[in-house]
Amino acid sequence: MTGRWRALWRLFAVQGAWNYERMLGIGMGYAAEPMLEDLKSADPARHAEAAVRSAEFFNSHPYLAGLALGAVVRAEYDGLPGAQILRLRTALCSPLGALGDRFFWAGLVPACVGLALVFLTAGFIGPALAGLLILYNGIRVGTAVWGLATGLRSGSKVGAAIGRSWLPRAAEAIGPVAGLTMGIAIPLVAGWYLRGAGVQIAGVLGLAALGVWLSWRFGNVATSPRFGLVTIVVGLLLAWGLH
Questions:
Q1: What letter does residue 57 receive in the DSSP assignment?
Q2: 23 in helix, strand or coil?
Q3: Same structural domain, 41 and 106
Q4: Could you tell me the pTM of the whole model?
Q5: Which tens digit of pLDDT belongs to each residue from 93-113?
Q6: Of 92, 119, 143, which residue is a domain's last?
Q7: Cα(241)–Cα(235) distance, rounded to whole angstroms?
Q8: What pLDDT digit, counting tens, does each position of 201-210 carry?
Q9: For the chain, what is the radius of gyration of the CA atoms?
Q10: For 165, which DSSP code?
């Protein structure tokens, strides 16, 4: 199958034609086109139908869209009925959306930002910013490459492949990591802004431990953004009291 790398490149712009009617559908169709070229010569009628199906309504986390794209393209080459392929697309929307939100937005983003803030307050401004960009984008690109390859390899069995993969476990584990890094970073940033007020190391570690415990005990209820707001208030009050 040709066009895999062109499809991967187009996936990075999958939201470029986002709209309320089809959500990511147009972007998915644009990304699928290079991989469907071989089908054009082998079965022109099937290719025309596949091109239309690939641009139908689709909504999930954009960073995990490659899993669905690869699975649907593989299903087209495997000759699955069109109705079954559309059901596969629909069935993947919610799981990929939930996994992506949990891993990236509620986990990886605050974890990377918190880590960068720790280095910023220590005076390592350049390494902190470079590390943030390299770490986050490295994971994002790596996930896209893995997702498209997994979808192409698994086809209609992509759901089982996702369940056996690293992704669900990573989404589960990243929450406490985000709580830890933000719990350390926010009091340090508050102390840094207050110019010498500082925060006792015991208070920093205590807030970090609290973030880990809340994530473990309450799961999605104690999200890192909510915990971040609490630690901002507590950190500012603590830093003000030590001023």
A1: -
A2: strand
A3: no
A4: 0.79
A5: 999 999 999 999 999 999 998
A6: 92
A7: 10
A8: 666 667 667 7
A9: 22
A10: S
